[in-house]
User: Which sequence fits this backbone?
């Protein structure tokens, strides 16, 4: 949870951090949007999510590595930001991670099984799904 906050403090012109929703335990579900706002090109959108299952800790390292790269001054990262909008939800299940669960959220649901019909018991999946659908319009 500290990582997105620390990124926001960098005040990069191509990074935006937003609150997508709150979890059942009132934790933030952050979404990061990375793209060059000066680019006038029509851009494709790439969604990246991690940690739907709290026990998959390597996903956090992979996601953090990707974010660090796409925010870097590397020439390839700059070109990618010119052509693509990256939408990243670094931790889909912050309650489950905090509670030390392996596969489920605070209420015992495997969130990976709720994408088609999320409910009030799966607010992070519901908000992320709605966000994806909004981009598809």
Assistant:
């Amino acid at each position: 949870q500290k990582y997105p906050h620390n990124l926001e403090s960098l005040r990069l012109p191509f990074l935006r951090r937003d609150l997508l929703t709150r979890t059942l335990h009132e934790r933030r579900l952050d979404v990061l949007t990375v793209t060059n706002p000066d680019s006038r090109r029509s851009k494709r959108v790439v969604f990246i999510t991690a940690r739907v299952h709290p026990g998959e800790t390597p996903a956090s390292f992979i996601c953090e590595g990707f974010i660090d790269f796409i925010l870097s001054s590397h020439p390839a990262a700059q070109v990618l930001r010119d052509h693509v909008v990256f939408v990243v939800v670094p931790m889909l299940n912050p309650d489950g991670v905090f509670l030390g669960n392996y596969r489920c959220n605070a209420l015992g649901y495997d969130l990976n099984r709720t994408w088609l019909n999320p409910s009030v018991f799966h607010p992070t999946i519901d908000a992320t799904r709605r966000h994806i659908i909004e981009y598809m319009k």
Remarks:
- The chain has a mean pLDDT of 94.
- The beta strands are 15-22, 28-34, 44-49, 84-89.
